[in-house]
């Protein structure tokens, strides 16, 4: 009987010690995670999107599937957003979120990011982003100017695997645009846009508790009847110089039929944005 209790005691002690060691290893890894786009998943640090320089006038609901490819990380997610006009041609609110995400890392990428797992052992969701848009100027003769204020919540999961930061961030910017060609009879138009703003996110650095960045974008929008092509080059430039300078070339082709829209996107990441992204989305207009 004594021998039995010794075995139980030894096994219990071994189990408690193993749990403590794993917990300590997990905490050590968490402290080493680098809060920058290069060392997180593709949705950890959203790069502000360059839009048309006018506030949306229609209620929109969009859902889309996304696939992000990088040699060390293959990620799939499901994205959704809602655009709500508040004051006609003056103000609108948008709420967007990653509903769920799934990933597979190579051991090398896991170690580089100080992550724990190469695949998620549990299901998890991403961050929610609240955006507001205000029309500061709308002039066909001159330019259109739109102000945007954005807040990313700390609702995303799997910080332990450097997927989402579990910390709030915010950014605000101004978009300026102008139509350079328009033929109403043929339903053809081309416009150019530029964006500049400020981006800030919290980190786990005990000295520098946050990283500040200037973010930017330049692109165009071309429309032909029911088709719309939007292309832009965007990014932001943090001051810590630790993987915090992502750049992205985005292309978005939309087709609209009545109140339904189909969206095909391709994103090419550069510098600290490591991924190639392919998406397919459906939009319902009201």
Describe the structure.
This protein is mostly beta strands and 286 residues long. Helix content is 13%, strand content 53%. It has helices spanning 2-32, 107-112; strands spanning 60-70, 73-87, 91-105, 128-138, 144-152, 169-183, 188-202, 210-224, 227-238, 246-257, 260-271, 276-285. A hairpin with a 2-residue loop joins strand 8 (210-224) and strand 9 (227-238). The longest helix has 31 residues, at 2-32. The chain starts with a helix and ends with a strand. The relative contact order is 0.17.
Give the integer mean of the pLDDT values. Answer: 90
Number of H/I helices = 2
Largest sheet: 12 strands, antiparallel, barrel
| Structural class category | mainly beta
The N- to C-terminal Cα distance equals 75 Å
Compute the CA-based radius of gyration. Answer: 23 Å
Give the helix proportion (percent range): 10-25%
Please tell me the total number of domains: 1
Q: Class in CATH?
A: Mainly Beta
CATH architecture: Beta Barrel
Q: What's the SSE pattern?
A: HEEEHEEEEEEEEE
Strand order of the largest sheet: 1-2-3-4-5-6-7-8-9-10-11-12
Total DSSP E strands: 12
Task: Record keyword descriptors for this entry.
twelve-stranded antiparallel beta barrel, 2 helices, Porin, 286 residues, mainly beta, 53% strand
